[in-house]
Amino acid sequence: MNILTISYGRFYVDLLRNSLMKSLMTKSNFDLINHEKTTWWVYTDDEFIEEIEGRIKTFFPAVTPMVKPRSDLRRFNDETQSALVHQIEECLKNKTPLLFAPPDIYIGEGSINGLIKTGWEESVSVVACHLRVTPSFLLEPQPKDNAELVTKAFKHLHRSWIDAELGNPRQNQYGTGVCWQKISDNLYSTIHRLPTPYYIKFTKEDLDYFSTCIGFGNFDHAWPGQILMPRGRQRTVTSSDIAFMVEITEPHKNISALPDNNKNPNDFFEHYMHNEINKQFLFTLRGQDEA
Amino acid sequence: MKPFKIFIPVWGSKHLRLLERALIKSFSWPKNQADLQDAEWVIVTGSSYDLMSAGKIIEKVFPDPKIRMHVEPKLMSFGTDSGEILIKPLLFEAKDCIENNKAMLMATPDFIYGDGTIDAFRKIAHEPGTCATIAHLRVLPTILNSLDAFDMISNATLMDLAWHHPHISWSEANKRSYRGGVVWEEIDPSFKAVRHFMPSPFFYNFLEEDLNTLGTGYDGFPAGFGNIDHVWPSFLLERDRLRFIGSSDVAMMAEVTDEKANVPPLNEPGQKGFFRDRAHNKIQPQFVSIFRGI
User: What is the side-by-side strand order in the sheet with B66-71?
Assistant: First the structure.
């Protein structure tokens, strides 16, 4: 497996350690990641290369670290697009899947297993919904499983998710593509129009696509609807029990604007195939049973 | 929430026994029972005797139920295609739902509804025109003996029970997927990831257009009950009306099936995917359900 992480600046380098790496050190995740066949590609600023490489070697001794300067990413104007295209080439050459692992995510225990098992077929890409939480989440004791992760996440919901609740006067589905409701004590049902591809088995078509598209934003905004879903290659996780991630987001960032009065608040600003289809397949978040 | 009716096609002693031991048993569980208190019961049957019998079974759990009835004597005839008969009362009731702003729950007697499933359907399919769909599994009638012991049961326990009594279409699903339409993978002992090529809608908010869709024959066959899962979901999908629930904790159902009935043939060498290729057959398997046991 290849892992791709892009981590610039002190804040995100710290998150790489305190969120992503910490989550990958839980037992089941670690057993699947810490493998001689895993290569972890990290792009970062020059001053953090040694630090990150040292951490990977210390905490994931079997993994091959490939920590590179962001100055390597000059192929396209969009640096992340440059990184992705390079990864697609690597994955096609070595016949490996990619785990897309931004530094600011926390991957629930057992989720790597869930992604791999769900994406067992050739050429598929596993997409999953993640939930935004504030950095205060990192002060919580480490959740032992995804159910506990869901419960803890709801204690630290980011504003973008608070506003995404069905019936909230600031319901922001138009901008976020998200709308959730509580079903029972520990169960939530969520519409998510553009879940993120996390575990990907690329094809040559993907290389052509990302080499010619406008930027990395296509990764979740357009590619699933233009390539994955029409080709039958998407595999969507519909329950947090299979795989669940949270994204650490500063409270003042990613606040979605509300639509103009003449826009339907239940609509979404984009209408790719996957936006229209994903809306109809609910993602379930299951928290801990209440004692 | 919107009022709704329960559509129950049931005739013959075998299915009346299933009505009591499977469907109504599951309806007696606390959350389901609470949700069904004010529902209208639509019984479609073949004789007045069966109608009375069905009514008595329902009354044991729901005293003084509001019952609407359709007696179709042809259902009692051996060899009749019941699907072609059932579509007529279904369309009749669908029209009534549209005119009187009601929803409908499909409840054949061989279904065991996980507790809380009806509540989930009503919450998730709350927008006009939306219909709730899940992948359900088939179980052997031997499960009913175990079920008798429970006055209430969590979906996780029910799922565990179901996998102790799996019908061959599920225990050998991966070898029979081309016609069976199901593949599954064990994530760990408690979780199975399921891909279903043709799950059925069970909770409906009908629109006028459905009367035509459901009432039309396709592929050379006359209009029949089979339209519900073979044809209609593609129309729902294209019109943003489908609402699929992939977690058994939210909604689950098990269909009691005789050992030798509904057995899909083994896949032939080279057969991949599913034998049908309507829109929903292509989209649905890209969404992976999780069946959770204890």
Answer: A178-184, A187-192, A281-286, B242-245, B131-134, B200-204, B103-106, B4-9, B40-45, B66-71
